[in-house]
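Tutorial, part two.
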Amino acid sequence: MKPESIVFAVAGAFFGLIVGWVLGSQQANIVRVPAAPVAAVQPAPAGPQGQAGSMPPSQAPKPLDEAQAQSLQAMAAKNPKDADVRAQLGNLYFDAERYQDAAKWYADAFALDPKNANVSTDLGVSYYYMNQPDRALQQFQQSLSIDPRHAKTMLNQGIVLAFGKQDLSGAVASWEKLVQVAPNSPEADTARKALQGLKSAHPNVGAPTGTPNPGA
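Running the prediction step on this input gives:
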């Protein structure tokens, strides 16, 4: 995954809006294709090879570089066992928000390199943006079977649980595990912000059944 990745691509007030939407509505389809609720505010899973998977509402997707796509496809045709070039194609199509094409190339790359947790997670993020949260979560499980400490997978797992499945308790569990196993990672920093926001607004989220609300 690319080192410049900042998962979520949100902070401060923007993150607060996201938390507010989850707690306030906990409904509606949040996948960004073709539109997102609440003035298009939406979380961005860690995108292709770690790039942030969402853009501000006013920003158009990056145009597909057709020449580069054709060049990479030619390389892929000449090298049927080259997983890296297929992952590059996945990145290219993901950046252009052509998620079905991206998923196709990520799946091809993962079939050739089934121990690559990065590509597996990129594939899962693509499924999420294709409005297939269950399939995304299944793919994240494959990533974690490869690398149980894969930070971006755990963060994305929490995002999809919260925003794709409205399972806030499940999201809390994913993010708490991330903070435990990779406490010094940038993903853990984002998870802490998510946990703080959710628990501040909804203290019982993630609490064991029967635990009293201290604010009650």
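DSSP finds ten helices and no strands in the chain. In part three we will examine how such features are distributed along the chain.
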